[in-house]
Prior knowledge:
The structure is a single chain. Helix content is about 35%, strand content about 15%. It is an alpha+beta fold and about 100 residues long. α3 (about 35-45) links the parallel β1 and β2.
Amino acid sequence: AARIAKYPGGFDRLLAAADMRLSRSKEIALIGEPNATEMRAMLRTVFERYLPNKVVMGAPSGVADWPLLAAKQAIDGRPTAYVCENYACQKPVTSASELATLLER
């Protein structure tokens, strides 16, 4: 208890790291133009929820600089979301309401 009182910032980071290690994280790839209306709706859907261990990356279609974005494309030119866990992705969706359903699982 004395060490926690002396270094509170260190222990909250330790607990956050332990939580990240012990729980499942959602990896969310958003593909499409960042200023598109539906893309902004998808971003709101992701960030309005309490998902403490989420990893979120976004890029225009065809940009694959990071493994989470590799081989992911927009569907029919629409902003597209891929929700993955442990590098296994669910079927991509093209609306904020479909994304919300995936994030609740």
